[in-house]
Amino acid sequence: MAGRKEVTQQTSTNHDDGRWRHLSVSVPINHRPNHNTSTQIKQKPIISNNMPPSKAKSSSSSSSSSATKKDEIQQSKSPAEFFAEHQSIAGFDNAGKSLYTTLREFIENSLDACESVNVLPDISVSIEEMTQKQFNVLRGVPGANSPGKKVVTTTDVDADATEPPNNDSGNLSSKDSKKLKDQKKTIRAGGEAYFLITVRDNGCGMAHEAIPDLLGRVLSGSKYGVRQTRGKFGLGAKMALIWSKKSTGVPIKIKTSHVKGVRGGGGGSLLNEDGSRKIGPKVSNCVLDIDIYKNCPRVLEHTQQTNTEQWIGTEIQVLVAGNWTTYKSRVVQYLQQLAIITPYARLEMSYTNRSDEKKGMNLRFERRSEQMPAQAREVKHHPSSVNNLLIQQLLEKTSTKSLIKFLTNDLSGISPSVAKKLIERLGNTYDEDMRPDELDDKQVTRLVQLLRSTQDLFKSPDGGCLSPLGEYNLNLGIQKVIEPDIIATARDKPGAYDGHSFIVEAAVSLGGKDAKEGITVVRFANRIPLLFEGGADVATRVANSKIKWSSYKIDNKKDKIGVFVSIVSTKIPFKGTGKEYIGDDITEIQQSVKRAIQNCCQQLRAHLAKRNALRDVKERKSRLLKYIPDISRSVFGILDGMRKRRLEEGDGFERIASPRRRVAGSSPMKHFKTSHSSMDAIMNDLSTGKLSEDAIKQHLTEAVEINAIAGIGDKEDENGGKSKSNKDESEREPLFLVPLYEEAKDSRHVIRHPLFDFYPIGSAV
């Protein structure tokens, strides 16, 4: 160990005899513990039993403290090493969540690549599950499954776990049976397998020389800045590579074709002047790993071949450990919600199991719309969002030569006149022509305080830089996936919080396939689905506690209500490191979400009033039609009895009032005589058979139909608009649609209805 420094760490070991033995571990500081370096264990002399315990303890603690203080040194970690140790920050909590997050990051990168060059996305995902034995064969691991050792995987759980252990009595006791069940559940829930994931898109591709840094360096990317993006940390694909390195040790494979001069962020177009798509002349193949201690890529293969496929895009393949059993539903749910928020994309996923082909599944979401949202624009920092560190960075990077130019050019919402007022308020130590790099720390602090406290001088952040999905696409996406009975969409006016603009879009649906009773909230942030920790999200809390559903004729307990909320912003205020939900502590966002949902509910209320009216009329009609046969038979029997009685008594037939005693206080009964002419007509129709039971039934049915149609207009509007009128509802004005051609003169083609007359145009007759 000569010539090398050592770091000594003190540890204590307790023995059965009550003595403490102190061990020191010496590690060379120019090597990391994870590397294959030898460590030396130095055993200090055992403390004598004759020494009093208190003195022995104080002596050992003082020596340990002095040694620690003497030998402590400062160490630093690279970003890749830090996130490899704290992978839950990026959503890699466990094997199942890591599988889900890997898929999600690759798919969202593909969407960004397509949208950046205005190409309708075509994304295919392939997931191939293999057992540990198959993985070892693929990797060429020698002696992994030695004789006598059984490797339990998710595939052979069902076969192995169902066989009971040998028992002399032939039966399991209740205790053993319960233990076996618990073991089976544990194995099924926690069993890991290996997954070969391939994601292919038709986006802009990656430049050959940029591939290693794009995928092999943590916290590097093109999404930093004040702009609406799906991700900003620069972690997604890199964390998938780190997880692959930790779980399987297999490097990532990239195949991509790129057109020179076309890049993400709107840099160029993939279309030629004639509308055909440009094709890159070369296809790049890259196999790379990552050095987590240096945070740099390790390129294993980097070649180019001729693009014989005439293809442009990116294909990424990675082999990771995961758990499909517990996260299958999450993956399917993510793709369904992604199809809602990106109806202009074609998404396809295939899952295969090498051990059991019956477990395979395929999902396909066809493109429903060809209208893509406009690309988000990068904007400057708003004065209300700055801080000391940000202003110092801007002062160092600015190309302006004066303070007034810095305020007007490097910040948004500040005009030259406002900049002059700000400089005047700063005091005599500031000047319009002073160089930005001349400001010291105290002057920067004073400038930040003034910018954050003088909000009345600045324009509010504009939502024009954002890229919301749009009500049209949101409606199509929900209809494609959910298939609701009725849906309403709304977009609230752009808002701002802490200098960051945001837009809230919402939709409320009723019914739909596989919908559950009650309120189901689906959340999106910057057009990506949020699946976890929904109970604390602002959309969930507003929908459950801030909306009075009964005011809109909606039963939030029995109706199948779908609430969809999409928030886009230059900075989404996520809570927690996992970026899984948006807190409800920002009043501006909470109120905007509430207004958007209420707008949807107001639209639904008018439709629901009509729907309820139609339902009531339909129920009334069905009840009346139910009794028509009995009424027709009774009326015909009464009339036929009258006919027979008239034949017996002659022409002097007269209806006489009932001789029964009238109830005290009731209205007097009216005596009336039937017209002889009408009575004769009825009797004649009865005699000739023109008036029969079937005829009465037919007339009653027609009367019920007409009454049902007329009854729709008698329903009161929920807002107290038009109510029942005392006027005769049968008096209606004719309504004609103005034809584009001459009307047909032949009345044979006119369709007449109690509510309208339909005249076909002349050319159609």
Automatic annotation (TrEMBL):
Residue stretches of biased makeup (Low complexity): 54-67
Domain of life: Eukaryota
Annotated region described as Disordered, given as residue ranges: 1-78, 142-183, 711-732
First-listed, main subcellular location of the protein, grouped into a coarse class: plastid
Location relative to the cell: Plastid, Chloroplast
Family matches, as SUPFAM superfamilies: ATPase domain of HSP90 chaperone/DNA topoisomerase II/histidine kinase, Ribosomal protein S5 domain 2-like, S13-like H2TH domain
InterPro entries noted in UniProt: HATPase_C_sf, Ribosomal_Su5_D2-typ_SF, Ribosomal_uS13-like_H2TH, Ribsml_uS5_D2-typ_fold_subgr, TopoVI_B, TopoVI_B_transducer
UniProt entry keywords in alphabetical sequence: ATP-binding, DNA-binding, Isomerase, Nucleotide-binding, Topoisomerase
N-terminal signal peptide: none
HAMAP family: Top6B (MF_00322)
Entry protein name: DNA topoisomerase VI subunit B transducer domain-containing protein
Organism: Discostella pseudostelligera
